[in-house]
Amino acid sequence: MASPIEQFQIKPIIPVINFTNSSLFMVGAVAVIVGGLLLATRKRAVVPGRAQSVAEILHDFVAGTLRDAAGAEGMKFFPLVFSLFMFVLTANLLGMIPGFFTVTSHVIVTFSLAILVIGTVVVYGFVKHGTHFLGLFVPSGVPGWLLPFIVVIELISFLSRPISLSLRLFANMLAGHIALKVFAGFVVALLGAGGALSILAPLPLLMAVALMALEFLVAALQAYVFTVLTCIYLNDALHPGH
Amino acid sequence: MAQAAQTTHATTEAHGGAHEDVGFPPFKTETFAGQVIWLTITFVLLYVLLSRLVLPRLSGIIENRRVTIAGDLDEAAAMKSRAEQAGAAYEKALSEAKARAQSLAQEARSKASSEADAKRKALEADLAKRLGESEAVIAQKKTAAMANVRGIALDTATAIVERLTGKAPAPQVVEAALDQSKA
């Protein structure tokens, strides 16, 4: 019996270039996204088929989310936001296939993505608005004596964004996969124990099936949450004045 | 999973048995560099492929559809207004034709009635003239007849008296008697 955390093990495939199972699934996610979208849109039909409808719905969904959060100006970040959403969603869903590695269950991956988002916000904010971008930390209408505290709180809140953004996704994927593995392990353990305990084996199996459904929901939902928060943070870069 | 662990057994000694020695995989910092490098490579690749290839195609499809639908709607609206114009023109032509037909009918009716009047008058005049002529002829014939009546009465009276008396009376006597009876 493998331990529940065995599934998160990084295993080298081509050690010379540091190519591991994680790298393989990153490449796989990109191949699935680009290949799938190109295949779905190959007919460029005015009246879309099923596959093309899915591609268009994904496009319109992300575009709508970004426009709602950051306005029409935010659409210049659309390729980035769409790439992030598709990458996280595909990595999460690929991880749901038994035996597959979940790229987003590693904190360094989610943290790198979060740093990419916050880095984009900071760089774009300063390039576009200069020092005016710092107005993000100074809400209007606050009494003077309160201002130092507010600025400190806003600063901490801003700095904790990449942490919360990355930990949320990482923890969700990690915990879900561990829970699945634990319940699946119970089934094997109960069957192995034999006798009366074997009769109880279907119970954790039912739990594992229910968790599987939940994990599919979490996989899609966390991709969406990551995207929505990205859009909200980008809105700060576009409109730093509260 | 188990056999995968076996294959890596050679590289990491602790893999097979005690996992505590290995540590929690996501917190193993020696894997971070490799993951970040490959994440960078794959994500940049994804970004480039999506922004250069996939998204222009997708937004092209959606924009093309929007343009097609808007064009079709415009065309439909234009056709509708054309149909409405044609309908209005038809209504106008119809009402004009109706008015013209009415005026033509009126004209024809009045012309016909005036012609009939003239004919009737001519006929009446003709008839009156002929009536007058006939009356004149009748009156003439009547006077002539009345003149003959006296002669007939004279003859008749003479004949009656001759039969009764056996001899013809003198014409003067008969005439006197006729004048008397006439008065």
Automatic annotation (TrEMBL), chain A:
Coiled-coil portions: none
Any one GO molecular function term: proton-transporting ATP synthase activity, rotational mechanism
InterPro entries: ATP_synth_F0_asu, ATP_synth_F0_asu_AS, ATP_synth_F0_asu_bact/mt, F0_ATP_A_sf
Keyword Transmembrane helix in annotation: yes
A Pfam family recorded for this sequence: ATP-synt_A
Subcellular location: Cell membrane; Membrane
Gene3D superfamilies cross-referenced by the UniProt entry: ATP synthase, F0 complex, subunit A (1.20.120.220)
Keyword Membrane applies: yes
Entry keyword set: ATP synthesis, Cell membrane, CF(0), Hydrogen ion transport, Ion transport, Membrane, Transmembrane, Transmembrane helix, Transport
Bilayer topology term: Multi-pass membrane protein
Transmembrane segments: 22-40, 77-101, 107-127, 134-158, 178-201, 213-235
One GO CC annotation: proton-transporting ATP synthase complex
Function description: Key component of the proton channel; it plays a direct role in the translocation of protons across the membrane.
Family recorded in the similarity comment: Belongs to the ATPase A chain family.
The name this protein goes by in its record: ATP synthase subunit a
Originating organism: Microvirga alba
Species lineage: Bacteria, Pseudomonadati, Pseudomonadota, Alphaproteobacteria, Hyphomicrobiales
From TrEMBL, chain B:
Keyword set includes Coiled coil: yes
One Pfam family this sequence matches: ATP-synt_B
GO MF term list: proton-transporting ATP synthase activity, rotational mechanism; proton-transporting ATPase activity, rotational mechanism
Biased composition (Low complexity): 1-15
UniProt-annotated location(s): Cell inner membrane; Cell membrane
Annotated GO CC locations: plasma membrane; proton-transporting ATP synthase complex
Membrane topology: Single-pass membrane protein
Transmembrane intervals: 36-55
Region called Disordered, residue ranges: 1-22
Coiled-coil regions listed: 80-107
Alphabetical keyword list: ATP synthesis, Cell membrane, CF(0), Coiled coil, Hydrogen ion transport, Ion transport, Membrane, Transmembrane, Transmembrane helix, Transport
Subunit structure: F-type ATPases have 2 components, F(1) - the catalytic core - and F(0) - the membrane proton channel. F(1) has five subunits: alpha(3), beta(3), gamma(1), delta(1), epsilon(1). F(0) has three main subunits: a(1), b(2) and c(10-14). The alpha and beta chains form an alternating ring which encloses part of the gamma chain. F(1) is attached to F(0) by a central stalk formed by the gamma and epsilon chains, while a peripheral stalk is formed by the delta and b chains.
Family per record: Belongs to the ATPase B chain family.
Job of this protein: Component of the F(0) channel, it forms part of the peripheral stalk, linking F(1) to F(0). The b'-subunit is a diverged and duplicated form of b found in plants and photosynthetic bacteria.
Protein name, as recorded: ATP synthase subunit b
